[in-house]
Write a structure and sequence with these properties.
The chain is an alpha+beta fold and 127 residues long. The chain is built from four helices and nine strands. It has one domain: Beta Barrel (OB fold (Dihydrolipoamide Acetyltransferase, E2P)).
């Protein structure tokens, strides 16, 4: 059974978001990392860009598959997790902590309400 923290919001594409002050941390869910297998490369080249909800901000390469990463909310990417350059496996070992991927300055924090609650995400993945 996948870990689904109650303090996060989720997307249909298996990204999670956590609000700290007015900044969003974004990563992929425990379910997503387990489906992908061992992550060997994280490619994010969008720092400084303003992107719309659903736009790809990068990709992950894993043993089983590769997958695009999508913006959970519209906003500007203000940072990426540099640790993933040399340690992409952090996404597998700690997807909700050290394995975060980007920080976003969202256009509108109220848009978080459109994301999935932990309960709805659990329904989505069928667990």
């Amino acid at each position: 059974m996948s870990l689904i923290p109650a303090n996060l919001r989720y997307t249909n594409d298996h990204e999670w978001t956590r609000v700290e002050a007015d900044i969003l941390y974004v990563g992929i869910t425990d379910f997503a990392q387990s489906e992908l297998g061992d992550i060997v490369y994280v490619d994010i080249n969008a720092v400084g860009q303003t992107l719309q909800t659903g736009t790809s901000f990068g990709a992950v390469d894993a043993v089983k598959a590769a997958s695009d990463l999508y913006m959970p909310l519209s906003g500007t990417i203000i940072a990426q997790n540099e640790a993933l350059t040399n340690q992409p496996e952090l996404v597998n070992s700690d997807p909700y902590g050290e394995g975060w991927m980007i920080q976003i300055k969202p256009d509108n924090l109220a848009d978080l309400d459109a994301l999935l609650s932990p309960e709805k995400y659990q329904e989505l993945i069928g667990e």
